[in-house]
Amino acid sequence: FSILHDVSGIIKPGRMTLLLGPPGSGKTTLLLTLAGKLAKDLKFSGEVTYNGHTMDEFVPQRSSAYISQHDLHIGEMTVRETLAFSARVQGVGTNYDMLVELSRREKAANIKPDPDIDVYMKAAAMEGDEANVVTEYILKILGLDVCADTMVGDEMIRGISGGQRKRLTTGEMLVGPSKALFMDEISTGLDSSTTYQIVNSLRQSIHILKGTAVISLLQPAPETYDHFDDIILLADGRVVYQGAREHVLEFFELMGFKCPERKGVADFLQEVTSRKDQEQYWANRDEPYTFVTAKEFAEAFQSFHVGRKLSEELAVPFDKSKAHPAALTTKKYGLNKTELFKACSAREALLMKRNSFVYIFKAFQLIFTALVTSTLFLRTHMHKNDNTDAGIFMGAIFFAQTQILFNGFSELSLTIIKLPVFYKQRDLRFFPAWAYAIPSWILKIPIAVIETAIWVVLTYYVMGFDPNFGRFIKHFLVLLGVHQMASGLFKFNAGLGRTMILANTFGTGALVALMVLGGFILPRTTVKKWWIWGYWISPLTYGQNALSVNEFLGHSWSQIVSGGKSLGRTALESRGIFPHAYWYWIGLGALVGYVLLLNFFYTLTLTYLNALGKPQAILSEEALEEKTANITGQAIELSSRGRRSSASGRVAEIQEGANGNSSKGMVLPFQPLAVSFDEIRYSVDMPAEMKAQGINENRLELLKGVSGAFRPGVLTALMGVSGAGKTTLMDVLAGRKTGGYIDGDVRISGYPKNQETFARVSGYCEQADIHSPDVTVHESLIFSAWLRLSSDVDAEKRKMFVEEVMELVELTSLRDALVGLPGV
């Protein structure tokens, strides 16, 4: 199935280009193609050039910036920290060279620069700085200065609003030096004034600095639309129009379609190629209307004067000699290796500080387990008289290893959570995989030392191991090696599995294999010959050997037993462990080798593997049929129009049911309820960052005496600019706020709200779409219905109700599609 068909055009510098088209027309694919980020498994023909240079002559990911429609960020970082890191790793590009050249010309012309502009340009040319003046500038332009010190947040952490998150995604690339911007639906979730402000700022930058910008918007307001110089209109993968904004209506009027006076031009362009909306714009009433396909529009455009001029320009190749050599980047990354390592290390240290609760909890968990283990293997009950006693000590050694092993299991989930953001930043050439992997290993060594020390200090002497201090240190070093090996193993499993389900499967499988083949459960002498290789490749084998040799060759086990051998040597031989002191160093060396090897494999997985799943939307059978008909020009019966009519009829019936006639409408009638709220106030403790700026108040008030009412049968729109508090008010009314201070009165049909009852009669659709990705749309709704509907509702009614809801929200055609994850 072809996504794009013979797409040709020229994106000119110093001009703002608006990319329009209905959903599924190929806008994202085109932008990815232009930015050099198209998936390698897609068949591609044609050529994209920058200033006449093909993409193998430079680094397109560094020369251009693709801004995704998916907002992937680390929730534990603040807005300012996110932008500052992005600015730091992307470097300053040609800013320094530009400053040097500008200073030379100013001196030659005897011009004294404006002090403010001079300071800004010099600060913007400083490479590798943790704080950058460009960051503050972009924060101001995007209106993010009000939440600069607020956590970004995610599904589990309260953070900035959806609109602010969308602006942060845009700002993450704007702080870089790229002059070619490809922006994919940056206005989703933003109010029109904020969108206008962003586009206006970009327009000034593009016009002054002669940059290049292609921006995809779904429904731009007229004032935003007027800020663009050129329009690219896509429909069914074809370029219907590309050229100056002033001539687009002229083209469609020649085709027989006219934009009504009170209709926004952008909305007209989105709908005029649609089979269900096109007819209403037909202006030639004297001629019968027939649907004009995207292919027919595209062919007609070739003969239009704008299309002819474009074809003439495309026929003449761009002269490479006219392009400045610094316009395209040939360096793979914005900083040198040392600076990249410093930047990634600083971010990793910050994240460790923000996630300190995890490490504190792990430490207390180890303390508790160590105390319980010490009482289990208390030295007063641990004798050293025969092989049975030796077996108990070996059990204690093996248990210590398994506890350290399990302690490292948390690395798996911590790694998986950050992978989507890593893949995005790796593909944008922010940093190489090694710059991400090595700091996450090196910086956690002190934590590993502390956790291992806690276990050894609390258990070694209490359990009665050899009291020699040198053997105590050797015992500690081996367990530290096991800890580091476990951390590397589970990070490698996370990088290999890439999803929580697969990674946990690999991780638990590795745990079982290591424990069974670790030299204690199955001693070497009892392992079958065909399986002995598993014994030798298990890291726990070397840990068990090293710890056992360290203990049983000590003075505590030196008493002679039958055969003239010491008790310790006899115990080692009975368990298939080589009774030689050098095996301690072999075991410790093997563990160090495994630490290096597993971290190397983890880096390889980060370097070469991509996120599982294909980043493409599901196309329903009806949409595919309509798309094919639009391409071929075949006539089809629009069943989707009938479905929409049916859905509209359902809405009417539901309204009748809500007004008292419960015999009509939804399968399950409901009792209408009115919600009123009076003087709602919500405040949180003043953030430390704001107090540091001189604010003396102890609380930050987010809702200030809000009052209102929602009536049954009346659809109420809650409106406001991004960050105004819409989500906060909804959270408070729905009872979702778990922190902060709430005052005010909320009543349900006149009665004080009881949260436990209210939760059963209300539904709250949050901004964050949290779903099980591996089930279908229908299965998700069925599961939700089973949990939320009363047990009095039988299975048949429950099924009918789900079908009715699916039809109401137009999900019937996607009932068997997997829900998936954002971007996958």
From TrEMBL:
Top-level division of the source organism's lineage: Eukaryota
PROSITE patterns named among the record's database cross-references: ABC_TRANSPORTER_2 (PS50893)
Domain spans labelled ABC transporter: 1-261
Keywords annotated in UniProt: ATP-binding, Membrane, Nucleotide-binding, Repeat, Transmembrane, Transmembrane helix, Transport
GO molecular function, one term: ABC-type transporter activity
Example of a GO cellular component annotation carried by this entry: membrane
Transmembrane parts of this sequence: 357-378, 390-409, 430-463, 475-494, 501-522, 582-604
Protein name: ABC transporter domain-containing protein
Species annotation: Opuntia streptacantha
